[in-house]
Model the fold of this input.
Amino acid sequence: NPVHVYSVQWDILALHEFVQRLKLEATLNVHDGCVNTICWNDTGEYILSGSDDTFLVISSPYNKKVKQSIRSGHRTNIFSAKFMPNTNGKEIVSCSGDGIIFYTHTEKSPEYNRQCQFTCHYGTAYEIMTVPNDPYTFLSCGEDGTVRWFDLRTKTSCTKEDCKDDILINCRRAATSISISPLVPYYLAVGCSDSSVRIYDRRMLGTRATGNYTGRGTTGMCVRFVPTHLSNKSCRVTSLCYSEDGQEVLVSYSSDYIYLFDPKDDQARELKGPSEERREELRQPPVKRLRLRGDWSDTGPRARPESERERDGEQSPNVSLMQRMSDMLSRWFEEASEAQSSRGTRPQTRPRGQSNSNNNNHRSEAANSSPAKPASVPDSSIPSSSSSSSSSTTTSRTSTAEPVLSLHYSSEGTTTTSRVHVFASSSSSSTGFYRRSAAARIQELFRRRKERREMEESETQNIRRPSVKMVYKGHRNSRTMIKESCFWGNNFVMSGSDCGHIFIWDRHTAEHLMLLEADNHVVNCLQPHPYDPILASSGIDYDIKIWSPLEASPSFNRALAHEVITRNELMLEETRNTITVPASFMLRMLASLNHIRSDRLEGDRSEGSGQENDDEQ
Done:
């Protein structure tokens, strides 16, 4: 009796011993890049995976063989891929870092499949979500702040420039994760970069293609969840997951924890958040460290917090060249910031999208994700610093140039990109003018933000606001944009981590039940088998790992788990104050420092020459 077998299998999951007997059963070496997405087919026979190598692979976890390897047509990292329901695993939808979505039929030619692309998103497309038992429609979300709904019965491609035909929701900030209620599929949860999870009733929504698009981000919204301490902060949602019965939602935040909430709850409406002044103070932590892109030394089972590295000394064999370069950058940043503070002035900031009116030569460089890794923390945008303001070249030599490091966090528009500006300023007049103009722009920015927030609050007065039901801690989620957390059966919650482990908690008590070392750097993806007690995982390593309860007895090492959790908490706090910058940043910083030293040397020579002339007279 299949029903009886199914019941027995999930009764096994009710026992803590089950997860404590998990052991690595198989490794599928099917990719040549980081594996950013994995998905079981309807029957659980095959796994679909997508990677930085831009291939889609269908493989069997049982015989470890590849059924089909597909050159997807994607030109950048594949972030999400799903089998379309009820298509016998023959139809796939996938999205990538450049925002392009491909519809792939496994029995059609590569030439045909390459034509079936949707270029509607601008910026990264983060996730694809299919609708249960619907083989025709799917949804996507992306950095452009939109959730789009596509119907393959009406079109299998769209390359229209600046297309808005299929926008279902415009969140007006990056939409980073979506999930559909399995039992009531017209409920759609959307995670945004402003720390909010919004649940919409799709029956009240439409697109321009269907003729009933409203264009308002609050239409159809019935629930809005934000943990109180994240109110008005920009913590990205990296994962959303409905429970099997649709009664609870699990949400994972970058640089924070995992939260469970009940969409029917409305208790948070009565809770008071921080004051407006406190909100601005809590908006973002101060930056203390810079990390070079490609430096993964703070990830994996052997990563250590900075305090331990300082204790062991820089000659520790665990300290990589990239890590030492990152440490050097952080010291430069700290010294320059202290020098700026010692002069009694505040670091200068520049609003997103604005340029210095006195410096037309400053060009902002958009730092794209490293092709060798999946998307890391929100990237930094660094302007050229090899030259200062045009006016500074004619200023008096008595104005000593100092490196000015300015950090601006932006949550406007659709990004939460951190921007670091490095430039040398030697003109007091130009600096004063810049400060006045920057202050005016910032005031206007905050005025508009306040107006928009007030409008949204007035439009969402009747929307339920759930409180936190449970918090799951111990893991570390900060280095990648994809960090899945999910339910396993009715009793367990799981998550990947930057420490390279899989964490498993008791769903009802948040007790740590199991820790599995599963990657040399970061575990990003976790997908339980639809029927059997089998788990698939993937991450920075170029493989897929299969886990089953094969241990003869429970093997949970609580002492090791406590040690890993303690380190993760320390390193999570460190990474809250850290941003990732491209290698070109170091070159530009060196150029800036060299420019400053040259100015000083020239000034010293001029002063010396002037003194000699005075003596001669």
Remarks:
- Residues 583-616 form the longest helix (34 residues).
- The chain has nine helices and 34 strands.
- The first strand starts at residue 22 and ends at 28.
